[in-house]
Amino acid sequence: MNKRIEYWFDYVSPYAYLTTQVIEELAAKYGYEIDWKPVLLGVVFKTTNSSPLTMRPPIMASYHKHDMERSARYAEIPFTLPEPFPINTQNTARVCLWMKEVAPSRVGEFTRAVTKAYFSGPAGMNDIAWLAEFVSAMGLDGEAAAAACKDEKYKAQLAAACEEAVSKGVFGAPWMIVEGEPFWGNDRLPQLEKWLATGGF
C-alpha cells in the first residue's frame, strides 16, 4: 500500500477547493495516497475561537476575497464566491464518509466535482436531493447517499472526525499531514511537494 497523506478539508473552504483539485495527482506523483478527512470548520472554529475568513473585520475579509480570486486565477481553476457563503456542509461530508466505505476509489472524483460545481455554481451543495442526484450521475446509489446524510453512524463519524482534527492541531483548511508533519493552506503546496520529493527538510 502506498504511503498516505491525511487531508483535512471542509467542502465550503475556497482554499481547500483549490487544493482538492490537485492534491490527489500531486500525492500520486510521489507514491502517496490521499486519506480524505472531511471536517466541519464551524465546529473547529468554536473550539479554536476562530471564524471564517470572509467574516473577519472588513479590511481582512476584503483582502481574503481578493486573494481567493487571485489564487484561483493563478491556479487556472474556475472560481466564483457563492452566495450565500459560507454554508453548512455536514450532509456533503457524511456522503463523503459513506463513499469512503462503498466506493473509496471515487472519493477524490466526488470531492473535486462537488466543490467545482459549488465554486463555479450555482449548485445546491449540501442539499440532500441535490447530492443524491449528483451521486446517481456518478453511477452510484443516490438513495443510499441520501440516507447516509441522516444516518446516526455517519453523524457520529463526522463528529469524531472534528474532535480528532482538533486533537491533531487542525485549525483551518486545507490541512495536510504527512508522516507527522503538518502543512496548512493551499499556499503550502510547494513545501508539501518538496517534502514528498525529498523525505523532509
From TrEMBL:
One protein family per Pfam: DSBA
Top-level enzyme category: isomerase
GO molecular function: isomerase activity
InterPro entries assigned to the protein according to its UniProt record, in alphabetical order: DSBA-like_thioredoxin_dom (IPR001853), GST_Kappa/NadH (IPR051924), HCCAis_GSTk (IPR014440), NahD-like (IPR044087), Thioredoxin-like_sf (IPR036249)
Gene3D superfamilies tied to this protein: Glutaredoxin
Domain DSBA-like thioredoxin: 5-196
Keyword field: Isomerase
Catalytic activity: 2-hydroxychromene-2-carboxylate = (3E)-4-(2-hydroxyphenyl)-2-oxobut-3-enoate
Domain of life: Bacteria
Ribonucleoprotein keyword on record: no
Enzyme Commission identifier(s): 5.99.1.4
SUPFAM superfamilies xrefs: Thioredoxin-like
PANTHER family named among the record's database cross-references: GLUTATHIONE S-TRANSFERASE KAPPA, GLUTATHIONE S-TRANSFERASE KAPPA 1
Family stated for the protein in its record: Belongs to the GST superfamily. NadH family.
Protein name: 2-hydroxychromene-2-carboxylate isomerase
